[in-house]
Amino acid sequence: MSSLNRELSEDSAFAAGRNSWNRHYHNSVVQPLLTDLYQITMAYAYWKSGKIDDHAVFDLFFRTNPFQGEFTIFAGLEECLKFLDSFHYSETDIEYLKHALPQGIEDEFFEYLSQLTAKDVTLYAIEEGSVAFPRVPLIKVAGPLIIVQLLETTLLTLVNYASLMATNAARYRMVAGKHIHLLEFGLRRAQGPDGGLSASKYSYIGEWNGSPE
């Protein structure tokens, strides 16, 4: 086997292994409590109003292209699907919410949350890696009103940063051409190891008043 063919074969094997790992890996930070407390209070309002059987459809889209550009690369879909597949409030999640939410909320609401899954949610999306444009839905989520409300913040965080990075990478590739190797060192300057949670913590250290999360 020639040196070039051996390198290509090794690269293909590495890519295949990496893609298989990605399909099974689930970031433990991405779970139902990775959201705004506002979303939980909205869910309680719906539950209190007897809207648990109401059906809703939400569109996820953006208003302007990043970097004053002419396009966006849609990314984050795989993580969104993993999140929907694993959506479930654990016992410790429920205990935390009992302390975080105002006193007087019925135990039946927490029991309802403990039984929630995303099995009745249908997600429609354009293909990940597609070129996308403002105000055109990237993802459409349809299902019971309460659960799609609870998905909103997490889906946004999974898509927004991923699409920003993919778009920036695509712009560099267009400038560099196809035959230049581009290597990333994003971990050195990214928003901490857990993104939005780091931003919330250090905003508080900078004497902001709080967060709806």
Automatic annotation (TrEMBL):
Record keyword Iron present: no
A Gene Ontology biological process term: NAD+ biosynthetic process via the salvage pathway
One Gene Ontology MF term: nicotinate phosphoribosyltransferase activity
GO cellular component, one term: cytosol
All residue ranges annotated as the Nicotinate phosphoribosyltransferase N-terminal domain in the record: 33-160
Keywords annotated in UniProt: Ligase, Phosphoprotein, Pyridine nucleotide biosynthesis
Superkingdom of this protein's organism: Eukaryota
EC assignment: 6.3.4.21
Any one Pfam family match given in the protein's UniProt record, by short name: NAPRTase_N
Reactions the enzyme catalyzes: 5-phospho-alpha-D-ribose 1-diphosphate + nicotinate + ATP + H2O = nicotinate beta-D-ribonucleotide + ADP + phosphate + diphosphate
PANTHER family xrefs: NICOTINATE PHOSPHORIBOSYLTRANSFERASE (PTHR11098:SF1)
Protein family membership: Belongs to the NAPRTase family.
Protein name, UniProt field: nicotinate phosphoribosyltransferase
Protein's organism: Anopheles culicifacies
